[in-house]
Amino acid sequence: MKILTSLLLGTMLLLGENAMAENALNNKQKSIAEAASYAASGNQAGLKQALAKGLDNGVTVNEYKEILTQAYAYCGFPRSLNALATLMSLEEERGNKDEQGSLPSAKPKGNSLDYGTENQTKLIGAPVSGKLYEFAPAVDEYLKAHLFGDIFARDNVDWQTRELATIAMLASMSGTEQQLNSHIKVGKHNGLTDEQIAEILDIAHENAAKDVLFGFGTENTAYAQYFIGKSYLQPLTKDGVSIANVTFEPKCRNNWHIHHKGGQILLVTSGRGWYQEWGKPAQELHPGDVVNIPPETKHWHGAAKDSWFTHIAAAVPAEGASNEWLEPVSDEEYDKLK
Ligand code: MN
Description:
Layout: H1 2-23, H2 27-41, H3 44-56, H4 61-93, H5 112-124, H6 131-135, H7 137-151, H8 159-171, H9 177-189, H10 194-210, E1 218-219, E2 227-228, E3 231-237, E4 242-248, E5 253-254, E6 257-260, E7 264-271, E8 273-277, E9 283-285, E10 290-293, E11 299-303, E12 309-315, E13 322-325, H11 331-334
Antiparallel strand pairs: 1-3, 2-5, 3-4, 4-12, 6-13, 7-10, 7-12, 8-9, 8-11
Helix pairs in contact: 2-3, 2-4, 2-8, 2-10, 3-4, 4-8, 5-7, 8-9, 8-10
The structure holds manganese (II) ion.
């Protein structure tokens, strides 16, 4: 009986893991999302690393060529051409030994506007029309004939993968939320799971967070005991005024603490976060916000639950200045914040 129970338990655990793995991105999909995200933000150093990892994970050169070419429809020829140039130079460095993979089969017969319209309807699940397309009919024709005709007819990358890349690209740009939300629906219609979409968005947001103005730095292990979640530290100056760039992953915050004698100034550079003084409501922070923390004031700062967050922290110099670290900000307190 005991053996049977443990066998059953083992099988259930195994099934559970498989079900989870089926809903998550595989390594190849992750590599495509990473590369698409960096291509869209124009971060060539990040792109090069992502492409190399992807080629090691079984993405072929032709698959990457397709994704980085498709990128032009979502982020323009300059980003697409730069990304393809990065792939080309990486291939030269690697001795052009990576698997090329298959080329697309011959173009479908007929007119690209006809089969493009058909592709678009199938991809989205319904015919696409609207006031904007009546206002500017040329753009409707280009979307149908060119993007969904010429590009989506190239069959060496499937539509689900193309949508995965599109979601990663749109999530890596700003001002494209409406298109991102539409493509999340299209992605789901083409079989991407909620978990996979959440992972793609995480990849895009993390890549953007690492591309901060003053540098991402390295994981802040020295102070990790005073933080919930991971933070990253890039020291900027040490002499005179000590200034550092601090990046918090979503949900990460530091413990309640006090800067004795000198106080601290925070300059918010990216993402959304919070600052709270003891006994007062938390203040939501956005890029451009300045927080002047007086000495002897108990407070905490950190990221919002759904956003990476970066601020520059300057320690106001004073004789005998020191930091006193206190209790963590409990989940109960933190979870009240939006
Ligand atoms: Mn502080």
